[in-house]
Amino acid sequence: MPAPPSSILIIGSGVFGLSTAYSLSQNPLYANTTLTLVDRSPFPASDSSSIDSSRIIRADYSDPAYAALGASAQRVWRDTSPGALGEGRYSESGLVLVADPGRDGYVRDSLENVRGLLEGGAVRELKTRREIDAVVGTGGGSGQWGYVNWRSGWADAEAGMRWLRARVEKTGRVQFICAEVVSLVREGKRVVGARQRDGIIRRAGLVILAAGAWTGRLVDLRGRATATGQVLTYLDLTADEQGKLGKMPVLLNMSTGLFIIPPRDRVLKVARHAYGYSNPTKIQHPDGSGNVIEVSLPRTSIDDPSQWVPREGEEDCRAALREMIPSLGDRPFTKSRICWYSDTPRGDFLITYHPELDGLFLATGGSGHGYKFLPVIGDQIMNCIGGECPAEFKQKWAWPMETMENVVTEDGSRGGRPGLVLQEEARKGSRL
Ligand SMILES: Cc1cc2nc3c(=O)[nH]c(=O)nc-3n(C[C@H](O)[C@H](O)[C@H](O)COP(=O)(O)OP(=O)(O)OC[C@H]3O[C@@H](n4cnc5c(N)ncnc54)[C@H](O)[C@@H]3O)c2cc1C
Ligand SMILES: *[C@@H]1O[C@H](CO)[C@@H](O)[C@H](O)[C@H]1NC(C)=O
Ligand SMILES: *[C@@H]1O[C@H](CO)[C@@H](O)[C@H](O)[C@H]1NC(C)=O
Q1: Is residue 39 part of a domain?
Q2: What is the 3-state secondary structure (H, E, C) of the chain?
Q3: Nearest CA to ligand 3 atom 8
Q4: Pocket lining: 129 vs ligand 3, CB cutoff 6 Å
Q5: Containing domain of residue 281, as a range?
Q6: Total structural domains in the chain?
């Protein structure tokens, strides 16, 4: 294992960066290492992918390695004792996964995996629409075949992040900086720090780049990871509706990617886990050569405060709402958001040293499923930094040797249409 550096700079305070800071602060090996965490937004960064009303917490994966890691994270989420992560932040509502014939491979494999992980009773195959509707209990449903896992649920994402942030603060080991990093600072083939927009240069023995969907601005990830925008819509409920729907399971249609998470504080969320929108943006090549390259980068409510999802996205959410909860079918959406995934070809995280630049470690590629690992991913990232990446993830999280012309995530979980471009869809209009 490489000797611990005297200083580590982490760029990005989302699930990946913040959990890494925590793990490093707890490891005696890094007892003499200065830890600095820089983020462009004050915490909590409202447009980061780790901050939202809710995230699904599941071990329901078609891939056994992520299923097992998900199960280990769930054990922590389920601890609702005072002060524990799960206290008031996690709800084991159950998860109904449905898919159309021909697109049901992911759901069938996932069913096998969770059956292997769980004792009987928690997981039940749903063979007809009637069985699906009965379990969902909203007067609606979706699809013809699927299963329910009563041992999955959802978390209040922002509350989980606040809990983690407080734990990191309490260690007293991490210096928090609010500044935007505009470039990495190199000396030859070595990254020695980062330059902030205010001109300040922060030097470090190791730089950990965990800037989520923005990472491609600071290092060339073309063909390996890309930012994709995903559609979220929210609507208000009455107290009575909250009471009734608060007990529904999460419902996810794997064919369209549309899902509904049980409401919290009288707000219901309808969203789409799909191929998403790209936002091609011309930037200076991060290598400092002066060349201009085009990469997809996030465009969020911070860039455009009046941002509303494109019409096609809202229409999809509307159709899902009509099908899944017919009584709310015409209720207007009061809020919408485009949330950005750092997407990789197979939905694998990118947790690895950069192959050419010394002193640079990447912890990104969340691919729309990283949040649930909040209690366990920091240790995994730390192990990979120390050269001890777990065997089952060594290949998956490594720097990919091949590149793809345009990264499209084919992990089996994505619905909808690939190839949508945000500006093109936005031009067709928004707000129904
Ligand atoms: C709509 C949506 C739904 C999702 N649903 C689920 C789910 O149900 N279950 C699940 O497990 N996962 C889900 N995910 C995925 C999960 O949220 C992400 O994988 C995870 O949050 C990624 O964390 P991160 O730390 O990589 O990125 P982020 O949380 O985005 O953090 C990156 C941070 O970097 C900062 N930053 C960026 N650029 C710079 C810069 N130049 N200088 C300084 N700071 C910078 C940003 O401000 C931000 O705080 C979902 C994601 C989205 C978008
Ligand atoms: C940290 O510094 C102390 C005091 O110099 C030293 O005793 C200890 O071995 C160091 N720990 C590590 C992990 O380097
Ligand atoms: C998914 O949603 C679409 C659109 O509402 C619907 O036609 C299809 O039957 C659904 N499929 C499943 C498996 O739920």
Answers
A1: yes
A2: CCCCCCEEEEECCCHHHHHHHHHHHHCHHHCCCEEEEEECCCCCCCCCCCCCCCEEECCCCCCHHHHHHHHHHHHHHCCCCCCCCCCCCEECCCEEEECCCCCCHHHHHHHHHHHHHCCCCCEEEECCHHHHHHHHCCCCCCCCCEEEECCCEEECHHHHHHHHHHHHHHHCCEEEEECCEEEEEEECCEEEEEEECCCCEEECCEEEECCHHHHHHCCCCCCCCEEEEEEEEEEECCHHHHHHHCCCCEEEECCCCEEEEEEECCEEEEEECECCEECEEEEECCCCCCCEEEEECCCCCCCCCCCCCEHHHHHHHHHHHHHHCHHHCCCCCCEEEEEEEEECCCCCCEEEECCCCECEEEEECCCCCCHHHCCCHHHHHHHHHCCCCCHHHHHHHCCCCCCCCCCCCCCCCCECCCCEEHHHHHHCCECC
A3: 143
A4: no
A5: 7-393
A6: 1
